[in-house]
Amino acid sequence: MTVIVVGIFILYFLLLGFLLIGWGRLTHTRNGLPAARISVVISVRNEERNITELLSALCSQTFKPLEVILVDDHSTDHTVEIVETWKKTNASLPLRIIKLGQDAAGKKKAIATAVAQAKGDVIVTTDADCRVGAGWLLSIATRFSDEQVKLVAGAVRLAPGNFFGELQQVEQAALTGTTAAFIVINKPVMCNGANLAYRKAVFTEVNGYEGNEHIASGDDEFLLKKISARYPQGVAFNANPGSVVTTRPALSAWEFINQRVRWAGKWRKQQFGVSSVLALFVFLFNLTFLSIPLLAMQWVVSLGTVSLLLLIKLFLELVCLKRITTWMGTPFNIHAFAALQFLYPPYVVFFGLISNWLNATWKGRKI
């Protein structure tokens, strides 16, 4: 048993080392001159409190979008009216509003509808509750100066208002590091639709979301897998710090649970490959971590071995997350990091199991 536990920890240490190496290689990426006509696509549902701030940020971009297409997914609040009023006094932003018909619903349908009507060569997606810096679109346009690049994944950071949000912020940094490192080796496993760009022609070429339309989430990752399968060298990560998109964390426990169940749902639908192997290993490692106290009490694994493994884990995770958060421009919260040493393993195991039975809700809509 000791050999098995030590072996699993060593594999985890190798994964962390890989993340460090991949992140180090990524930060040396060089961009060319901007060469893209960009259509920004935003799927919205009940975003009356958020949407105008995002639209104002798009007005301030140093690289102007060809158009902004806002697709309303059957909002039940005043989102559309607020946007139409805002548009009258902000004519400089080429904004179009599309309403999904009664026979269509969901983010994938909204994005596909916008892409079909888009005039730009490159589609850029984000969410209504996100905030972008003035250089966001410029950083994306420069990545597409390389004709080999078909899809560009970007980083998303959280702006926490409390300790619960700070816990999520640390996890988000880990997801960003994983995203970047696997893209470096041309084996992308994840991306975030809040900061994603791809060539319209390639979206059409891989038939968009065909084959996974019935899955509520995954508008980002399923498309990523399709494009990377067609163009193994065509996925890039946006290493410009000015490209980071900011959004809020889940504010309540119920929102958090629903969000994580949605995330876990798309992982269950993945075809067997690097993504599924990674997910299974992370689950196995955290399950092993939870079993250590019991194994130590029964002297199956010595206290000296346990202490050494935990110290190495702590050090490598600290180095990884500190580098990533520094690049993202977010403060590294040592208290949140320490708390997650105890909270993260049961969290992973819990959602890995419970997502097989729970159904999520999103903005009043069952998924």
Q: Please, could you describe this protein's structure?
A:
The chain has 367 residues and is α/β, with parallel strands linked by helices. β1 (38-44), α2 and β2 (67-72) form a beta-alpha-beta unit. The chain has helices spanning 2-26, 51-59, 79-88, 107-117, 136-143, 163-184, 200-205, 221-230, 253-268, 274-297, 303-328, 334-354, and strands spanning 38-44, 67-72, 95-99, 122-127, 151-153, 156-158, 196-199, 235-237, 245-247, 361-362, 365-366. Strands 3-2-1-4-7-5-8 form a seven-stranded mixed sheet, with helices on both faces. The protein has a domain at 22-259: Spore Coat Polysaccharide Biosynthesis Protein SpsA, Chain A, CATH 3.90.550.10.
CATH topology of the domain at 22-259: Spore Coat Polysaccharide Biosynthesis Protein SpsA, Chain A
CATH superfamily of the domain at 22-259: Spore Coat Polysaccharide Biosynthesis Protein SpsA, Chain A
Low-confidence stretches: none
Helical proportion? Answer: 40-55%
At CATH's second level, what is the architecture of the domain at 22-259? Alpha-Beta Complex
Helices and strands, in order, run as HEHEHEHEHEEHEHHEEHHHHEE
Q: C-alpha Rg, in Å?
A: 21 Å
Structural class computed from helices and strand pairing: alpha/beta
